[in-house]
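Human: Here is a favour to ask of a fellow structure person. Comparing notes only helps if you start from a blank page. I am asking you to supply a protein in sequence and structure-token form. Write it directly below this note and I will take it from there.

Assistant:
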Amino acid sequence: MKQKLMVFILTLFVLLLAACSSESSTEESKSTDSSEPKETAEAKEITVKHLLGETDVKVNPENVVVFDFGVLETLDTLGVKAVTALPKEGTVPSQLEKYTSDKYESVGSLKEPDFEKINELQPELIIISARQQDLYEEFAEIAPTIYLGVDTTKYMESFKENTEILGQIFGKEAEVKEELAKIDENIKALKEKASGLDEKALVTLIDEGNISAYGPASRFGIIHDVFGVKPVDENIEVSTHGQSISFEYLVEKDPDILFVVDRGAVVTTGQAASPAKEVLNNDLVKGTKAFKEDRIVYLDPNVWYLSGGGIISVNEMVKAIDESL
């Protein structure tokens, strides 16, 4: 009897030992075989691929320097509170006026960053775009830096990609999805309206008396490429500064709608609110269909020139073109 009891106890001990060993092995397997990517499992950083390279970025950084007003718009719309500094020397778009307060540090201007100040702030992330592209290496020496400029040849695709990257960095994927869906819906309605019209438009920028024209795939090509407004000239030179044109060109092309971005209104101090109106106040312009039908549309340069590529500005762009039609 005693011998049977000893055998029973030994058998029970072996079974318990085997069970513990199996459970431990299972837990270890779960730990080592996890298929979750590092950034999801640890919620520490993600690798952002951008035009200038690949950058490891901390998830939910709390000290961010932003050099692109479109990006700043998007972060503001998404409720991100991590921005600590921006280029305040020069004009900050009116829709971002709250960022001119002393709560936010100034790190120079869009084209002349104050690297000493940026280094002093020791940011966790720096976001730049086209105006700072050539200075990328200098930014990257201070902190992780990503380029989120908009590619005008594929405006919406580029804008959405940038917005989704911001959503991933700051844990705002759901909000981004919702905002982009609303924009898509508004653009669809605008495009349907524009496609049903025979009117042709010309997009111009006026600066210090000079007039530049922009067509499809250009800086302001979103009007034609995305919104569906027909261009009066399909062969306008594509460049950052546009194609220089004369008043005679305006008369020759005779657009139904003339869109005007007044650069001087936002970058030049001591001028009238809209100096572009003075430039266009001549007999040649007055002979165009756009003038006669009161279809010269002055687009907000805060949105179209200083900013662009952000949730606020894209919504405002859709609204402005929709109202002009």
